[in-house]
Amino acid sequence: MATSRPGPNLSRIATSLGVSVATVSNALSGKGRVSGQLVERIREHAAELGYVPSQAGRALRTGRSGVLGLVLPDIANPLFPKIAQAIEFAASAAGYGVLIADSRGDVAAQTEAINRLVERGVDGMVVIPRRATRISSAACPVAVIDTPSTPGNTVAADHWQGGREIAGHLAGLGHRRILIIGNNQESNVQNDRAGGIRSGMRPGMHSETLWIDRLEQENGNGCPLGLAEKVGQGFTAFAALSDLLALRALTELQQAGINIPTDVSVTGFDDLIWSPVVTPSLTTVRMDMDRIAGIAVSALVDTIRTSSIREGVLVTAEIERVAMQLIVRQSSGPANPAPRTSEKENM
Amino acid sequence: MATSRPGPNLSRIATSLGVSVATVSNALSGKGRVSGQLVERIREHAAELGYVPSQAGRALRTGRSGVLGLVLPDIANPLFPKIAQAIEFAASAAGYGVLIADSRGDVAAQTEAINRLVERGVDGMVVIPRRATRISSAACPVAVIDTPSTPGNTVAADHWQGGREIAGHLAGLGHRRILIIGNNQESNVQNDRAGGIRSGMRPGMHSETLWIDRLEQENGNGCPLGLAEKVGQGFTAFAALSDLLALRALTELQQAGINIPTDVSVTGFDDLIWSPVVTPSLTTVRMDMDRIAGIAVSALVDTIRTSSIREGVLVTAEIERVAMQLIVRQSSGPANPAPRTSEKENM
DNA sequence: TCACTCTGATTAAACGATTAATCAGAGTGA
DNA sequence: TCACTCTGATTAATCGTTTAATCAGAGTGA
Hints:
2 copies of one chain form a homodimer.
Chain A: H1 10-17, H2 21-29, H3 36-49, H4 55-62, E1 67-71, H5 80-93, E2 97-101, H6 107-119, E3 124-127, E4 142-144, E5 156-157, H7 159-172, E6 177-182, H8 188-199, E7 206-211, H9 212-219, H10 227-232, E8 237-240, H11 243-255, E9 265-267, E10 284-286, H12 289-306, E11 321-322, E12 325-327
Parallel strand pairs in A: 1-2, 1-3, 3-4, 5-11, 6-7, 6-8, 8-9
Antiparallel strand pairs in A: 10-12
Chain A binds a DNA duplex through residues 3, 5, 9-11, 19-23, 25-26, 29, 31-35, 38, 53-54, 56-63.
Keywords (chains A, B): DNA-binding, Transcription, Transcription regulation
Organism (chains A, B): Rhizobium sophorae
InterPro entries (chains A, B): HTH_LacI, LacI/GalR-like_sensor, Lambda_DNA-bd_dom_sf, Peripla_BP_I
């Protein structure tokens, strides 16, 4: 129950040096008027005492906690490690801590998670929204990372352009019939990626889109996608809208005895952890998460600094879209004019 | 710059009701002596004003922030989503927030991350340590989640037993020669898993262990593992020590024209997100992260409640190991007495 | 009636930092 | 010398909550 004081505080330093707390505070923050040598002495002494300012005291006085919230409604998302890492890094560099909030599940839980963060006094938050939900702005500045086409988006990877990269790459390899494999038609991100692919196709090319969640509603989770059949229909390239889907396609095709990239090509999105190490390694498109996180966080921090306290605003950044980068690996190759599923050549 | 007051505070409620702040505080926390009806009135009024206690004020007074730190030195780890989700859920249920800290890289960075958390005033932290590092306990209670064989471990999945499950499963399918595929020999977790597999093998069974990092030091990252050759040497089962490695093995074998599970079996660990959806879906062993997180957090919270402030202790829990659960899917099947790599049957 | 206890409330002092307001003293120009 | 400015420091209030200490009043037993 004891509320002892573990570390030294301002007043300890002050009395120990025979000056006032205000002077110590000013010296350390460099704000008031303190003589150069005194500043020196105070800083030195503070350092040697191992002084760490109390966030609680500061927060109480200033009304700012120095903490940002990170809301990831789709936390099972395999992109999470990258996102969390990038946000934490950027925030930490700006002197902020990162409080995570997960809403397992529905939109109500997302709102609830946001409220929890607000109650904990975050100064602002970064939200990667659940598919197609709008953030009714909370009681603090909010930066949204989704996709440039989403209204209210702060900054995001240019998924549309990423799609064009994929289309261009496949077109250059001579592919004419492309099957786009998506998960959920509600997802802004996936829609933009698919749209980008379609818009990047050259005359004479044809695409079809397969949305897996529909298929799974009928046939159960993890059901076969029937890709071998698609190969029979003349599709030579499978452009998945995420690396997880690409992996699923890759293994299903391989299991059916179809060789990649000899028979057909497979591409993904995101450059997730397994993409470089599967066989064949996955051609994909990478987003510069560090850059995106950096922009989001610095825009957020700027807004926090300039806006009055507890104001709910959607943060805007100068750069709203960050280019994606095509990573060509082994899973894509020249189009095979007539791939056969029944016989195959080993190299 | 204005330090305005966004929400109502204790004194607002107090004056509005014509009572003292202390009474309001007591009524809301149920601590002092307040008459039943007054408690009722105060609670009601607080609720309708939408009162939210200031964490800063409380933290300053009590010396507790209500925040736990989560240190994940190996944040790129694909297990991260599950861990973070489970910890956040458990902490949130106990009334705590979760501050994340990532140390990209070395052990020094890990220490630095821990310090950052301490500076932010966390009441305790959960650490998933970098391979084989010991946590020199910080200035607050620390719960460690690694593996039961690690000294100082608080609670963890029983990786050894998980290994035995795998061994038993493969033995039951008639496999006699097993190749264990690990990543890093320094990892306590992987060593325990491998040890469990070996200890669970029946007489007449034989195993060999392939550590990938060595291979990659010579041949570069993402190099082939030469598994087809191992099949030629009579190995019929490949027991990877993580699902990522299993995936790598699976695709390499498939690409070499070896059918799974007809020719050989592949198993993993962790039941990561892709395990159910690849073809063939992956037989693996799942850890009950929710349970582990629950135990770790409640042990941590208990320690925080009872110990005096800022004391650095390694938390211990009653239950130290949590059983892993075998998930049998399609990637494992009866041993094929003489698998051939050059020809295969499609079902 | 007096001394005492018990109840239900209030008072006031923290916690640690920030910052506006104040102040002492030195220097300066007329 | 006086009025003024400038510098370098101090004083004191404040943020919102918790909690030990205090207090007024009612009830009680002798």
